[in-house]
Design goal:
The chain is α+β, with helices and mostly antiparallel strands and 412 residues long. The chain contains 15 helices and 20 strands. The protein has a seven-stranded antiparallel sheet with strand order 17-16-13-14-15-12-18. It starts with 9 loop residues before the first strand and ends with a helix.
């Protein structure tokens, strides 16, 4: 139950994504009045789009393995994810009548699979809790008295509140509401913010016209992708000017860092990760007969046309025809097809964003040290994670933590 000193207190939440909505729920359940402001006409647009192909809420792998997916941010995020772990997120979903299941990859989905059924029930619950949603309000900072400033269709509006949460997302998919404009506002107010960079993004490759025109949109399935000491199993998709897809996204952080540092990165693909180098060499030593070399590779190694196309693309680039390679050398090429990445796909097309408000700028409840009463949650904070449920889990967990932090602040 809410303490008496919370009665009549007002909280503003800016941003109607998962972090903002779960914070609103946390605060409203304590009896505090909450208003959510968002520049879009309806809430959770990115959440809805992300869930069209299946809403991946979280992941079922062991906790330490799960936490390691956050890389350098893992120690920073550990307390809040421990406080609101994957099983708590599943219980929350099921409390809304949306049961969950674990897919074959270990990813967790609601049984309805898409985001819209869950969001409808959630918004109804927030309405029952008295949470107000105010649309078409773009936050632009504070006035001299500390009031929140908004641009609205009816002109500028000022809002005074007991505490505020900024949950404005990163800068990917800006047409859905997250355009990163908040970064300049915070920097102008003395808050250190790391540069916003694409995460879970595609990369540029200079394909030949022949390869691009024939294989654009083709998937590379059940491959292994390697960069430096990092190797993942997954899939990739050939785009007109590069590669994207789950396997690429899993390596996007180190690939991005290398391209930012040196201007390029060399990715290697193993087209048959289930076969050893010696097994491949043995198969490639069999007589070709009258088959074309492409048919020989297709039948002998069960390679799809796009895989053969990649092999040919790499051999042309290096001036070494595939048909002239000894079986052992060709086997090695199948296991390590070199793909030179020359750039990063635009941040607007990335699934998520790296960078944001630095950890030293907030306390353990995500309140800004320099601005008491102002909290930050979700993708605005400086962390990143691969797809697979990790993005939503951290957004929810930081939203819950910030919501609890706001209640604690209001009780002081």
């Amino acid at each position: 139950m809410a303490g008496s000193n919370l009665a009549g207190r007002q909280v503003a939440i800016i941003g109607a994504g998962p972090a903002g909505l779960i914070a609103a729920e946390t605060i409203a359940k304590a009896g505090v009045s909450v208003t959510i402001y968002d520049r879009m006409p309806s809430p959770a647009r990115k959440f809805l789009l992300a869930g069209r192909g299946g809403l991946n809420l979280t992941h079922s792998e062991p906790f330490e393995d799960f936490l390691a997916r956050y890389g350098a941010a893992a120690p920073y995020l550990r307390p809040v994810i421990e406080a609101f772990p994957p099983h708590a997120l599943r219980a929350w979903s099921e409390g809304l009548g949306q049961k969950t299941f674990v897919g074959s990859s270990g990813r967790v989905f609601p049984e309805a699979f898409k985001a819209s059924p869950l969001l409808r029930v959630w918004l109804r619950q927030l309405d029952d809790l008295g949470v107000r949603f105010v649309a078409r309000h773009r936050w632009i900072g504070w006035d001299a008295s500390g009031a929140l400033r908004f641009q609205t269709p009816d002109g500028e509006r000022f809002v005074t509140t007991g505490a505020a949460l900024l949950a404005l997302g990163g800068v990917s998919w800006p047409r859905l509401g997250s355009d990163g404009a908040w970064r300049d506002v915070l920097i102008a107010n003395g808050i250190d913010v790391a540069e916003l960079l694409p995460a879970n993004c595609g990369f540029r490759v200079v394909w030949s016209d022949v390869f691009r025109d024939r294989f654009e949109g083709e998937p590379l399935k059940t491959i292994a992708l390697s960069f430096g000491t990092h190797t993942v199993r997954g899939e990739a998709i050939v785009t007109r000017d590069g590669l994207e897809g789950g396997g690429i996204y899993a390596l996007s952080a180190p690939l991005r860092e290398e391209i930012v540092r040196s201007g390029r990165a060399m990715l290697h693909l193993d087209l048959r990760p289930d076969l050893s180098l010696s097994e491949l060499a043995t198969r490639l030593s069999s007589p070709r007969g009258k088959q074309s070399f492409s048919n020989f590779l297709r039948k002998t190694l069960s390679l799809p046309p796009v895989g053969i196309g990649l092999l040919q693309e790499s051999s042309i680039r290096e001036g070494m025809p595939l048909a002239d390679m000894a079986p052992a050398l060709l086997a090695e090429r199948v296991k390590t097809v070199p793909i030179p990445l020359t750039g990063i796909a635009p941040i607007e097309k990335a699934i998520s964003t790296a960078g944001g408000v630095l950890s030293r700028e907030v306390n353990p409840q995500f309140m800004l040290h320099k601005m008491p009463g102002v909290f930050v949650a979700g993708e605005m904070l400086d962390w990143e994670a691969p797809t697979g449920g990790y993005l939503l889990q951290a957004s929810f967990a930081t939203g819950v933590a910030a919501g609890k932090g706001i209640l604690e602040f209001l009780r002081l």
